[in-house]
Amino acid sequence: MPHYEYDLFIIGGGSGGIRAARISSNLGARVALAEESNLGGTCVNVGCVPKKLLFYASHFAEDFNNSNYYGWSFDNKKFNWNKLIKNKNIEIERLNNIYKKMLLDASVDIFSGHASLVDSNTIKIGDKLITSKNILISTGGYPFIPKITGNDHVFTSNEAFFLKSLPKKIIIVGGGYIAVEFASIFNELNVETHLIYRGSLFLRGFDKDLREQLKNEMIKKGINLKFNTEIEKISKKNNNLTIKLTSGESLNASHVMYATGRMPNSTNMNLDQVGVKLDKNNAIKVNKFYQTNLSSIYAIGDVCNRHNLTPVALAEGSILANNLFNKKNDTLNYNNIATCIFSQPNVATVGLSEEEAKKKYNDIKVFKSSFTPMKLTLTKSDEKNFIKLIIDKETDLVIGAHLVSDNAGEIIQGIAIAIKSGATKKIFDETIGIHPTIAEEFVSMR
Questions:
Q1: Residues taking part in catalysis
Q2: Tens of pLDDT, residues 395-425
Q3: Are residues 156 and 288 in the same domain?
Q4: pLDDT (tens digit, 9 = 90+) per residue, 362-403?
Q5: Fewer CB within 10 Å, N- or C-terminus of the chain?
Q6: Which residue segment(s) compose the domain that 237 sits in?
C-alpha cells in the first residue's frame, strides 16, 4: 500500500477549493492547499466581492439625485475614486486573512507558490515534491483578450479594480454579465461609457424580454450601446486611444476594457504530460463526481467551464469532500440555479427563459408586468421594473421567473426556493404579498 503525505492536495485557493479543504479536513483527512496568489480566488479578489462594492459606490449617484425629491439636499457632492479603491483593498485583504485563518483552524497545510503535476499522485511546488492520494484542481479561469492590433493598450476586469484614476471616457467590449455590469458602474460614476458587442443583443442565453428591458434602461441612463460590430484595431497617441470598428466607425477614448469571456486556467500545470483530458477550450473534463479520466485527480469550478458561479463551486467542493471522506455518493442538481447581474437596474433570473420553455414544453403560459417602482414615483426617473413568470400549462408549475429591478438578486433568491420546491402558479396566487414591495408583484400577476 503506497504511503502518501496527504489524503487530498488542492491546487487553487478559490471558493471551491477552500470549501473542499475545510470539509475534508474536518472529516479527518490530511489536507493541503497550494495558492500562488491571494486566497479567495477570482470572486474575492477580482470578481463578485469587489465588483459589488464598486456597484454600491456607483449607485449612490442615483440615490443622491433622487433623494432631492424626498426633501434632502446635498451640496458639493464629490466622488473620490482613489478612496474607494483604497477602502476596497482593505476589505479584500481582511477577507484574504479570514480565509487563511479558516484553513489554519481546520488544520489545512497552506503552500504559497505555483503548483504543477508530476504524475497522478505527485505535485511540484518550486523544488519540493509532495505526494497525495487524491488531487483536486480548482484553479478557476482568467479573462480572455482576442488577438487584435493594439490589444496591449486594453485592460480586463482583473485590472479594473486597480486603476490609478477614474477613466474620462471608456469603451467596454463584450456582451456578457461582466461587460454589462462594468458599463453600469462606470456610467453611474459619470464616465462617458460605450459598450460594444459583436452580437445583435447582449446577455445571450437570458430571456429575450429581460435583455430588451435592460437594453432600454441602459440607453435611458446614457450608456452608448453599439451592437453588431467589434474592434478591428486600437492605436495610441499622447495617452489617447483611437478605436477602429469593423463597421467602419472610429472612436476615441481614454480607456478600453475587454470583457469578452473567460478561459479555464488549466495551462502551465503539466496536465497534458500527466494525461488529464481537456476539451477544445482547455476546460478539464470530469464526470458527475468531478473525477477526471485519471481516478486520483478531480476538478471543480470554473476550470471545468460548466456553471461558472461561486455558489456552484462551493456546492461542488462540499459534495466532493463528502464523497471522498464521508462515504457519500452525491451529485449536484444544476437545474434552477438562480443568478443576478449587478447592472443598473439589476437583472435576476431562475429557471427557464421563454425561448427555452417553448422548446421543452408543449404549452406554456407567460405573465408579464412592467411598472414604475414606488421609490421612484416622486422623482423624475423613468426607470421601469419588469417581472415575468413562465408556467407549464399542463402541470401549472412555475418553470421560470425573471426580474429587472433594484435589489433583484435579493428578491429572486426567495423565488428560487419556491421554484426548486415545485411551486405552482396556484401557490403563487394564494400567497399573500407584502405591500408595498416590488416582490409582491410575483404573487399578484393574473
A1: 435
A2: 999 999 999 999 999 999 999 999 999 999 9
A3: no
A4: 999 999 999 999 999 999 999 999 999 999 999 999 999 999
A5: N
A6: 151-260
β-pair partners for 340: 348
Q: How crowded is residue 341: how many other Cβ atoms within 10 Å of its Cβ?
A: 24
Predicted model pTM? 0.96
| Among candidate residues 404, 401, 355, the one with its CA nearest the CA of residue 383 | 404
Cβ-based neighbours of 437, under 8 Å, separated by 6 or more: none
**In the sheet where 224-226 sits, what is the strand order?**
224-226, 192-196, 169-173, 255-258
Identify whether residues 42 and 137 lie together within a single domain. yes
Do 251 and 267 belong together in one domain?
Answer: no
- Burial zone of 333 (CB within 10 Å; 0-12 exposed, 13-18 middle, 19+ buried): exposed
Q: How many whole angstroms separate alpha carbon 198 and alpha carbon 173?
A: 9
In the chain, how long is the greatest CA-to-CA distance?
76
What residue type is 314 in one-letter code? Answer: L
Tell me the pLDDT tens digit for each residue of 310-348.
999 999 999 999 999 999 999 999 999 999 999 999 999
Report cis status (omega within 30 of 0) of the bond before 345. Answer: yes
Sheet holding 339-341: strands in order across?
339-341, 346-351, 398-405, 385-392, 364-371
Amino acid at 421: S
